[in-house]
C-alpha cells in the first residue's frame, strides 16, 4: 500500500514538471509569434513549440488520470497524435499561402531567390492555356 | 501542490494567448492572423486540459478533441481559400 502512496506522490512531481515544461514551451512559442520579424520565422516558432508543449501537457494529464483512477487512461494520446499529424499539414498550407501572397522576407534570409521561384511555380491544377 | 502548479500553468498559457491576440490584432497580413488563430486554438486546448486536471474530471477531454478537429479544419479551409480562391473545387 505504501508503494502505491509513494507512486501517487512521485507522480505528482512528475506531472507538475510536465505541465510546467509544456506551459513554458507554449509561452515561448507564442512569444516567438509576437516577436519574430517576418512571417516565415513566425511560422517556425508556434508550430514547433506548440506541438511539443501540447505533447508535454497531454502526457502530464495522461499520467495524472492513470495514477488517480489506477488504470491506463490513454484518451489524451488521441489528441496528441492528432495534433502531431495536423500541425505540419496546416503549417505547410499557411507557408504556401504566404509564399504565393509574396510576403516579404526578413533581411539576411539565405536563398531568397528560391522563394521567388517557388512563388512563380504553379500548382498541378493551375495550368492555364496561355 | 498540483493545484498551484495548474494555476501557474494557466497564467503562463493566458500570457501566451495574449501574445497571440496581439499578433491577431496587429498582424500586417491575413496569413499572420491565420497563424495567430491557429496558435490560439492550440493554446485553448491546453487550457481545457488544465481545467479538466484542476477539477479532476475527464469530461472536458471531448471538448478539447472537438476544438482540435475544428481548429485544423478551419485553418486548412482558410489557407486553401487564400491559395486557390475557393475551398471545395
UniProtKB/TrEMBL annotation, chain B:
InterPro entries (UniProt xref): MrpF/PhaF-like
Record has Transmembrane helix as a keyword: yes
Keywords: Antiport, Cell membrane, Ion transport, Membrane, Transmembrane, Transmembrane helix, Transport
Membrane is among the record's keywords: yes
Topology within the bilayer: Multi-pass membrane protein
Signal sequence range: none
Protein name: Multisubunit potassium/proton antiporter, PhaF subunit
Amino acid at each position: 500500500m505504501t508503494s502505491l502512496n509513494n507512486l501517487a506522490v512521485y507522480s505528482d512531481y512528475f506531472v507538475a514538471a510536465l505541465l510546467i515544461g509544456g506551459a513554458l514551451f507554449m509561452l515561448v512559442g507564442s512569444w516567438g509569434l509576437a516577436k519574430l520579424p517576418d512571417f516565415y520565422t513566425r511560422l517556425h516558432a508556434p508550430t514547433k513549440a506548440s506541438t511539443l508543449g501540447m505533447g508535454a501537457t497531454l502526457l502530464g494529464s495522461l499520467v495524472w488520470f492513470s495514477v488517480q483512477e489506477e488504470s491506463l487512461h490513454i484518451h489524451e494520446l488521441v489528441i496528441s497524435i492528432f495534433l502531431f499529424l495536423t500541425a505540419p499539414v496546416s503549417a505547410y498550407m499557411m507557408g504556401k499561402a504566404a509564399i504565393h501572397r509574396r510576403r516579404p522576407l526578413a533581411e539576411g534570409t539565405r536563398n531568397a531567390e528560391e522563394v521567388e521561384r517557388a512563388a512563380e511555380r504553379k500548382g498541378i491544377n493551375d495550368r492555364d492555356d496561355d | 501542490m498540483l493545484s498551484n502548479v495548474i494555476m501557474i500553468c494557466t497564467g503562463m498559457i493566458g500570457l501566451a494567448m495574449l501574445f497571440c491576440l496581439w499578433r491577431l490584432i496587429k498582424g500586417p497580413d491575413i496569413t499572420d492572423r491565420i497563424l495567430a488563430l491557429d496558435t490560439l486554438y492550440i493554446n485553448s486546448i491546453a487550457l481545457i486540459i488544465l481545467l479538466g486536471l484542476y477539477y479532476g474530471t475527464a469530461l472536458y477531454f471531448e471538448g478539447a478533441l472537438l476544438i482540435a478537429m475544428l481548429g485544423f479544419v478551419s485553418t486548412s479551409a482558410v489557407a486553401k481559400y487564400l491559395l486557390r480562391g475557393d475551398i471545395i473545387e
